[in-house]
Amino acid sequence: AVHIQLHHQLTRMFKKFDHLTIYALALTLLSIIAVVYFNTGKANALNEERRLMAQQTEAKELAFTLSDASDYLTMEARRFAVTLNPVHLRNYWREVNVVKRREKVNKRLEELDTRKEEFEMLNQARNESDALVNTETRAQRLILEVYEVPEEQMEPQVRDYQLTQEDRELDYNKKVNKAREILYDGQYEDNKQKIMRLVRNFEDTIQKRISVDIEETRDRVDRFGMLSSAWMVLLTLLIFLFVYNVIQRIGTPLKDFEAQLKNGTDKVELSSDSMAVIQNIANKVNELLERKKTKE
Questions:
Q1: Of 279 and 198, the one with more pLDDT
Q2: Would the CA dihedral through 286, 291, 292, 293 be positive or negative?
């Protein structure tokens, strides 16, 4: 019987604490979830913005690298054809076979998961650059044959290049002139301009696309900021309601309790929604009053 009575008393006390406790726990839990959600969302959006900006910068650098590598090969090929200085020939093939900037650009674009249409633009520019390399190799082979350089001393690509019957039949002077001509003629310049156009188109396309993505990401950051502000307003209201509820269940009963004691009541009576702590105090006071009344 004592156990059952204690159980009932604990149950009643739990019910007294129930509303405010659940309210406080729910408010705390919601606050934690909201803070984690808003901070994580905003951090992710900011990280995405930084990633896109870095990608935008890198795309511009890749476009410049491809353009610069193509210009460098043209410059060294022409210098060799004009000066016949083998240093320029070595510089040329070092760029093609060792430095390999054009290959690195393509590889990096694949790693960046570039969109297909964007990749194709720069890949086409690379293919046009390869076509120029073919022309430049032809010019180098013509010149090296004029100076009767043994094939084993030639770069593999030059050694393996097969001149046409017409090229082979040219005399020495005409071979040199032909080599210089094909490096400066209209076809060669058209190919160079085509490479530049493709590179610019790539750069413009990817810059526009990433700029749109960056704006969308910034909008997400702003939305998280607005949601965070709205939550703070709501949280302030919820805290106000919580404090008001606490006052109603503690402050008001205490005043009522005090007033009844001053009026010399024989039994303190509190409203049923008073907190259990206040109810317990009232019960103890009632027990004391009852004992005092009994003694009298």
A1: 198
A2: positive
